[in-house]
Write a structure and sequence with these properties.
Layout (H helix, E strand, L loop, with lengths): L7 H4 L9 H19 L4 E5 L3 E2 L5 E2 L2 E4 L10 H20 L8 H11 L6 H19 L2 H17 L1 E3 H14 L2
Helix pairs in contact: 2-3, 2-6, 3-4, 3-5, 6-7
């Protein structure tokens, strides 16, 4: 999202009045990962906005755990991985109005590592990243996916952690409403 686009989520009242902007942004971020995972055929184990520790030090604000295994019918596993990784930042930007690269720093490092296997030069890397970012925005701006992200965000703010089954339910209901 560029800075000239309007931001309908930030103009609307918060889904949960007591939630901080950072917590709401985190919920949108994790919901974005979850919706993109389902959109590319992956299964989600659970999603949480509970803070936690990273395996090798540092901390995280939330996580979307994706079940192991290959995507159903995926033509390009690497592209699917990159789309899921970028989806958190793109979804969060719908709420905040800007990309929060600091908040998505681990996701962006993972994207960069994956894209290095396809891009021989820095310019190719940047071009591929821009293309993947545009594709992520396109997929997540679909009204059914926006609806699913909002529903998952709302439940995350109410419950902190939700199951993959609940995520899939919200995704499928949104798809049906917009079919």
């Amino acid at each position: 999202m560029n800075s000239r686009e309007t931001n309908s989520e930030s103009a609307a009242p918060s889904p949960i009045p007591a939630a901080t902007k950072e917590l709401i942004a985190t919920a949108f971020h994790e919901a974005g990962h979850a919706v993109m995972a389902l959109a590319v055929g992956r299964s989600v184990q659970k999603v949480t906005i509970a803070p936690g520790k990273l395996q090798f030090g540092g901390s995280r604000l939330g996580t979307c755990e994706i079940k192991k295994g290959r995507s159903k019918g995926s033509k390009d596993q690497l592209e699917d991985d990159v789309l899921v990784l970028l989806a958190g930042m793109v979804s969060e930007a719908r709420f905040t109005g800007v990309y929060c690269q600091a908040g998505a720093s681990q996701d962006l490092r993972d994207v960069s590592a994956r894209l290095c296997t396809r891009a021989a030069t820095e310019r190719q890397h940047e071009t591929l990243l821009k293309r993947m970012l545009a594709k992520t925005e396109h997929i997540l701006h679909d009204e059914a996916n926006v609806d699913a992200i909002r529903a998952i965000t709302k439940e995350l703010l109410e419950k902190t952690t939700i199951s993959g089954r609940a995520v899939k339910h919200h995704f499928e209901m949104a798809q049906r409403r917009h079919a």
